[in-house]
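Input protein
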Amino acid sequence: MEKIEKLIQLLPLGSIFILLCSSIKLVIYYKTFNISIVDYIGIQEFITTFIDDILLYLCIFGIGIFLFLFEFAQNRDRNYTLKSDTPENYKNERKISSTLSILILFLTIVLSYNCDSRIKMIEIICVGLFISLSLFRIFLSSTKVNLPFLLYIMMSTISYTIMYGYTDAYKIIENKDKLSYIIAFKEKTYFTDKNLKYVGKTEHFLFLYNLKSKRTTILKNDDLIKININYTNNSI
């Protein structure tokens, strides 16, 4: 019960951590298009992105808490002092976890190197690192050292956040987004297509990216009238 109470006390810090992850995702996403988003967004808009992502991260934390309680229930009666007294009992566990970790890292390198899509490559690397980190934690648990569960969840979540930011960006760069936009200003209307892509907007700015020239156009929203969004199957 004491561990559970400590976990509940950490929930406010969890909110700050989610805000940090949302900010990391936003910075990585826009940086892919050579946009320094911190120059175009206010603190209150970072909080808005936190609200947009909160459900996703709450699901991640919910899974983390479930795994924590499951591990706690398994280990509450386990005497870890036996590790030093009976090392043979943990020898196979160390061998298996370390061997699998090396194998997963090797497969991750091979699969990502031969991947024809940047999105798939990033996903493979992220999954490979997550599995390797899990196996490394198992390896440590068979020694006198242990990777704290909270640190493990934080590292995994940050890894996922980085993947999340890059994959969202490369869906646009690889023309795999399925939305088209009609952006009407007072003086001009922009139509997105296979070359011109809508990246996003803040309170005062709107961002378009040209896939051919690989240049980003930054427009002020002062004269913005409306944005129409349509679903299309014309992505490559």
